[in-house]
């Protein structure tokens, strides 16, 4: 085999590996939302249409896979914050981003726990710090136009969401109760505009459910 052939083969293997990794993460996101942090590697492999050995080569244990899912979604939240920072309406930009944060933490208790100040990956990375730093410009823009309490920070708002989700997770109708309390918190931190009604618990964007 020539050197060019070897390089082409190596490139193909890297492409296949990247494609398999994305399939695994996508399957894991679905399974974690459906079954929670107890999702097995075998469940993920079946949904991804891959062999268990392939999944285990990429993620030797469930914790590493869960952390990869968490970090992938954290980076999505950070990218969305950067996009929303360019939006014309600071109030709506912050509300939209916080809706995404709420969806993330209500997808499972494990996701909620990852967005607490103590939540860290095995490498010591803080999902909380990463997301808070990404969201802070949105909070500052909203505060500048009077759309959020001037003393609020992104870390405060994330803590409110995760705290409510974790406290209500064992209630009979946990999702509805959490959404109701989150809206009450937003009503205090993010004043309604003139002519706007503060949404009730049933008017909050839905979530896929917690486990």
Notes on the structure:
The structure is a single chain. The chain is mostly helical and 211 residues long. The chain folds into two domains: 50 residues, Orthogonal Bundle (Arc Repressor Mutant, subunit A); 124 residues, Tetracycline Repressor, domain 2 (Orthogonal Bundle), CATH 1.10.357. It is 68% helix and 0% strand. The chain has nine helices and no strands. α4 runs parallel beside α7. The longest helix has 33 residues. The N and C termini lie far apart (52 Å). About 7% of the residues have low confidence.
How would you sum up this structure in a few lines?
Keywords: DNA-binding, Transcription, Transcription regulation. The chain is mainly α. The protein has helices spanning 3-35, 41-48, 52-58, 62-84, 90-106, 109-114, 127-144, 154-168, 174-189.
Bin the helical content: 55-70%
> If you consult CATH, what is the topology of the largest domain?
Tetracycline Repressor, domain 2
Low-confidence stretches: 194-208
How many E-type strands?
Answer: 0
Beta percentage is under 5%
Give the quaternary arrangement of the chains: single chain
Give the integer mean of the pLDDT values: 80
Report the top-level CATH class of the largest domain.
Mainly Alpha
CATH architecture of the largest domain: Orthogonal Bundle
Described by the principal axes of the CA atoms, the overall outline is globular
Radius of gyration: 20 Å
Count up the domains.
2
Straight-line distance between termini: 52 Å
Number of helices: 9
CATH superfamily label of the largest domain: Tetracycline Repressor, domain 2
Protein name: Regulatory protein TetR
Organism: Salinispora arenicola (strain CNS-205)
GO molecular function, one term: transcription cis-regulatory region binding
Domain HTH tetR-type: 18-77
